[in-house]
Write a structure and sequence with these properties.
2 helices, about 0% strand, elongated
Length: about 80
């Protein structure tokens, strides 16, 4: 994490002192309780569906050409892919 966002997860954000991992929370009910207490969503965020192939030469094709069955339609709703943590 330090290489990507310059955040040192094992350093105290207030004093800069070293911290140690004491335990890992693996119980699903406990994780839900912690997230609810912090006001974070419990369900994972929805991700956008995969996009279709690039148009390539089809971008210059005539408008009268039959529709491409591999082309993906626009999604019916907008996806929010931002992380909220």
């Amino acid at each position: 994490m330090a290489r990507i966002s310059e955040v040192f997860p094992l350093r105290c954000p207030q004093c800069g002192g070293a911290m140690r991992i004491r335990a890992f929370v693996t119980d699903a009910a406990t994780v839900r309780d912690i997230l609810a207490h912090l006001g974070e969503p419990i369900a994972q965020p929805r991700s956008a569906p995969a996009r279709g192939l690039p148009l390539g030469e089809a971008a210059n094709a005539k408008q009268d050409a039959p529709p491409d069955p591999a082309r993906q339609p626009a999604p019916a709703y907008e996806f929010d892919q931002r992380l909220s943590w």
